[in-house]
Amino acid sequence: MTKAPVTVTVTGAAGQIGYALLFRIASGQLIDAETPIKLRLLEIPQGLKAAEGTAMELDDCAFPLLESIDITDDARTAFEGTNVGLLVGARPRGKGMERGDLLEANGGIFKPQGEAINAGAADDVRVLVVGNPANTNALIAQAHAPDVPAERFTAMTRLDHNRALTQLAQKLGASVNDIRKLTIWGNHSATQYPDLFHAEVGGKIAAEQVEQSWLADEFIPTVAKRGAAIIEARGASSAASAANAAIDHVHTWVNGTPEGDWTSAAIPSDGSYGVPEGLISSFPVTAKDGKFEIVQGLEIDEFSRERIDASVAELVEERDTVRKLGLV
Ligand code: NAD
Ligand code: LMR
């Protein structure tokens, strides 16, 4: 059975994540194996030639679901009629650049992309921001798309979630399939808080199956600083695992979470768990009927509260910086 095609725009398409992502989208892993895909690749002018090379390789795969590939350096063209926007391209932190400089440089990317999404994307558009600082870049894009429902702008913490699953599984000699209800709270940064107090392994609370010292001194920092560890080991930031997480995030958003489980995604706060309304912060979320919902009613102890608050405080600081710059 063939469904209606879905138009997917990938920004930064010629970058490392783009290269790991596009083939998986075109092969049917983003939505499902029956939905044809129309790809739009957005790059800066210097990236267009490499994007054309990637498009040649996509052609050479003869993917049955891939209907078309368009390449452009114009955001309006790239987002016209888009159903799924994967905002990967971002300005990396350069030498001597302060956090504020980085946020300002990214404002120059995510503001026009938000405007382009507002102007031309499909009514059901869903946006995932991968480019760092992802949560605040998502906030900037959202601020410039007032006609798009706010909850359609999300940022990626699924990679952190997947990292935490494997660290925990390896510690307990379990399989990732045995783990439920793990949560990443807060920012996609080193302040994030991977929470094992609600997570279950084999039906029992994960935090009760590990030593407190491992949880506090090994697990949390290993997950939170994994991005930096990959850069150190690979000489480049994570790419295939980031692309994999982007696929997981959108697939879950569209197809739902399994009964009795949840996942992590940075979505606009409704004020739950003391996170200021409107901040794009990571929460435990379920997905149903194409919508993410924050899991309600979890008890948060002092240990978790402190860590959630610290990460949320960083997000508030980032929001205040981009506010001062007039970006939100
Ligand atoms: P990369 O440098 O290999 O590729 C980025 C691409 O974006 C480049 O080809 C560049 O030309 C393009 N680009 C820059 N500005 C653009 C614009 N205005 N419009 C369109 N394209 C533009 O980087 P990468 O390794 O692919 O990583 C991309 C981003 O993802 C980085 O910000 C990285 O920090 C972030 N990241 C996030 C996560 C996460 O979990 N959220 C994980 C890994 C990486
Ligand atoms: C990651 O988590 O792997 C990346 O966000 C790291 C980075 O700084 O690009």
TrEMBL record:
Pfam families: Ldh_1_C (PF02866), Ldh_1_N (PF00056). It catalyses: (S)-malate + NAD(+) = oxaloacetate + NADH + H(+). NAD(+) binds at residues 12-18, 106, 113, 130-132. It is an enzyme of class 1 (oxidoreductase). The active site is at 188 (proton acceptor). One of its GO terms (molecular function) is L-malate dehydrogenase (NAD+) activity. Keywords: NAD, Oxidoreductase, Tricarboxylic acid cycle. Its EC number is 1.1.1.37. Residues 7-147 form the Lactate/malate dehydrogenase N-terminal domain. Residues 157-322 form the Lactate/malate dehydrogenase C-terminal domain. SUPFAM superfamilies: LDH C-terminal domain-like, NAD(P)-binding Rossmann-fold domains. Gene3D superfamilies: Lactate dehydrogenase/glycoside hydrolase, family 4, C-terminal, NAD(P)-binding Rossmann-like Domain. Substrate binds at residues 93, 99, 132, 163. InterPro entries: L-lactate/malate_DH, Lactate/malate_DH_C, Lactate/malate_DH_N, Lactate_DH/Glyco_Ohase_4_C, Malate_DH_AS, Malate_DH_type2, NAD(P)-bd_dom_sf. Catalyzes the reversible oxidation of malate to oxaloacetate. Belongs to the LDH/MDH superfamily. MDH type 2 family. This is Malate dehydrogenase. The lineage of its organism: Bacteria, Bacillati, Actinomycetota, Actinomycetes, Pseudonocardiales. The gene is mdh.
